[in-house]
């Protein structure tokens, strides 16, 4: 089987040099070093500066075993390398909370890709698995399908993926909680009673495993792996392979964040910006593969407030995360893109 057979059909014309899509040229960012935070010796002043000036930082000494992340990457790549139709059938057949998506990072709460409006940019070159951790941990074992023998042979691999993902989720949730509590202290944010679990609800945590395919030379120059956006989360935690491709906007310029082995990338999302009353920023970022001959693989954890938690800020009208999520999905479906916090800012021309 050629590698292109594992890609969604819409990607295959981009993996060859024939008839690449007509897209505007995207300027490559310059290399930049982002702040580094040591989780074992966490310096609150360095953390405050990273959140205020950058909205993103690299995390060292995070305590996630290298053997676990290596095995998770190995089995994720193996599952993603299955033929496209087999991936679709396998994930549909087991009827688990896991789902397979492609062509867009915009998903609904069930993990299905949202239909995007006519103004959407060109096809986003990524595919992956959506893993809601709270549902995943409630399953002792993925249900067995009644599919053909070939699919049944892949189910033990999918079960191993579930077990590894559950273990990884416990580590990454621990990190998110520790970081959020430290960030809250830098803001003098009151977290008495249930307030911490309302602002950062572990039950909302989800992980997405991404694969960005090989592409033609022209597509590699011009196409994005993931379009320009901010995350809707409180905190996002990324583990990426050595291929690179993450870019952030600082000021009015794009910069490349080079991968560093055995570290994690932590970025703040829209909910943290609102909770901090805009003192801390949700970083604008994108993914643009540098090497067309290799794939890019990454794993990203996202965590949110409780759905009914009311976010109050002097810069935004009060809203719950459910309000925010519904508005984002409505904008993606009607306009093709996320608007985000400006929808809730009375001083913004995009306020609704």
TrEMBL record:
Could you tell me which species this protein originates from? Arabidopsis thaliana
Name of the protein in question: Fe2OG dioxygenase domain-containing protein
The protein's matches in Gene3D superfamilies, at most eight in alphabetical order, are given as: B-lactam Antibiotic, Isopenicillin N Synthase, Chain
Record flagged with keyword Iron: yes
Q: Which PANTHER family match?
A: 2-OXOGLUTARATE (2OG) AND FE(II)-DEPENDENT OXYGENASE SUPERFAMILY PROTEIN-RELATED
What family does this belong to?
Belongs to the iron/ascorbate-dependent oxidoreductase family.
UniProt keyword list: Iron, Metal-binding, Oxidoreductase
Mind listing the GO molecular function terms for this protein?
A: metal ion binding; oxidoreductase activity
- Which portions of the sequence form the region Disordered? 1-22
Keyword Isomerase in record: no
Q: Per UniProt, what is one Pfam family of this protein?
A: DIOX_N
Ranges where the Fe2OG dioxygenase domain occurs: 202-305
- InterPro entries, A to Z: DIOX_N, IPNS-like_FE2OG_OXY, IPNS-like_sf, Iron_ascorbate_oxido_reductase, Oxoglu/Fe-dep_dioxygenase_dom
């Amino acid at each position: 089987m050629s590698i292109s057979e594992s890609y969604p059909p819409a990607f295959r014309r981009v993996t060859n040099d024939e008839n690449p899509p007509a897209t505007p040229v995207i300027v490559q960012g310059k290399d930049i070093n982002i702040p580094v935070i040591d989780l074992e010796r966490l310096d609150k002043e360095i953390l405050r500066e990273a959140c205020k000036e950058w909205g993103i930082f690299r995390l060292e000494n995070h305590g996630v075993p290298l053997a676990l992340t290596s095995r998770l990457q190995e089995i994720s790549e193996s599952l993603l390398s299955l033929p496209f139709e087999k991936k679709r059938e396998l994930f549909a057949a087991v009827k688990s909370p896991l789902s397979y998506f492609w062509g867009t990072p915009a998903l609904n709460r069930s993990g299905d890709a949202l239909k995007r409006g006519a103004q959407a940019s060109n096809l986003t070159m990524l595919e992956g698995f959506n893993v809601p951790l709270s549902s995943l941990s409630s399953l002792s074992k993925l249900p067995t399908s009644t599919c053909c023998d070939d699919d049944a042979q892949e189910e033990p691999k999918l079960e191993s993926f579930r077990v590894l993902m559950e273990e990884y989720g416990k580590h990454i949730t621990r990190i998110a909680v520790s970081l959020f509590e430290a960030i809250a202290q830098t803001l003098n944010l009151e977290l008495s009673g249930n307030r911490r679990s309302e602002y950062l609800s572990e039950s909302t945590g989800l992980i997405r495993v991404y694969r960005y395919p090989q592409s033609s030379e022209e597509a590699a120059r011009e196409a994005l792996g993931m379009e320009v956006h901010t995350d809707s989360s409180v905190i996002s935690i990324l583990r990426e392979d050595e291929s690179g491709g993450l870019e952030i906007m600082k000021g009015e310029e794009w910069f490349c964040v080079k991968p560093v082995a055995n570290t994690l990338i932590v970025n703040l999302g829209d909910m943290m910006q609102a909770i901090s009353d805009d003192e801390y920023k949700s970083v604008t970022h994108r993914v643009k593969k540098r090497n067309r001959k290799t794939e890019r693989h990454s794993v990203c954890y996202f965590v949110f407030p409780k759905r009914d938690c009311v976010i109050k800020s002097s810069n935004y009208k009060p809203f719950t995360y459910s309000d925010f999520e519904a508005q984002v999905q409505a904008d993606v479906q009607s306009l093709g893109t996320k608007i985000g916090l400006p929808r809730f800012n009375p001083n913004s021309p995009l306020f609704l």
